[in-house]
Amino acid sequence: MDKVNIEQKLSLFSDYWNPRTVGELNGQHVKLVRLLGEFVWHKHDLEDELFYVVSGVLQMHFRDKVVTINENEFLIVPKGIEHKPVAEQEVAVMLFEPATTLNTGDTIGDLTREKLETI
Predict the structure, then answer these.
(1) Which domains are seen in the chain, by residue range?
(2) Counting beta carbons within 10 angstroms of the beta carbon of residue 64, is it exposed (0 to 12), middle (13 to 18) or buried (19 or more)?
(3) Residue 79, phi-psi category: left (phi > 0), alpha (psi -120 to 50), beta (remainder)
(4) CA–CA distance from 117 to each of 25, 39, 57, 80, 106 (Å)?
(5) What does pTM read for this prediction?
(6) CB burial of residue 17 (10 Å; 0-12, 13-18, 19+)
(7) What is the pLDDT of residues 31-42, one digit of tens each?
């Protein structure tokens, strides 16, 4: 039962779109990730995702709208909904999602991370 300091964990890496696992509970992973630029359109058929913005501003693109998520706000993307995160400037995000969640969902490519580092 160790506490986690989010700033300290974020200081351990500087690359983008490469989530790190920082905790686990009830089959869920708590992840930290730095984002910059555009991700890929994708969806998760079986898992909801929670995006909590630690710092910065994240734009979550959907096929019919864009939702702005500011620092200290979160958005839950329901399973089956296509989405594309976009960060015009660096954003730090905490993710809560089932341990089985693949970061690129149904879109496999260069940004897919099958095995995440735990820090």
Answers:
(1) 6-98 (2.60.120.10)
(2) exposed
(3) beta
(4) 17, 20, 25, 26, 21
(5) 0.90
(6) buried
(7) 999 999 999 999
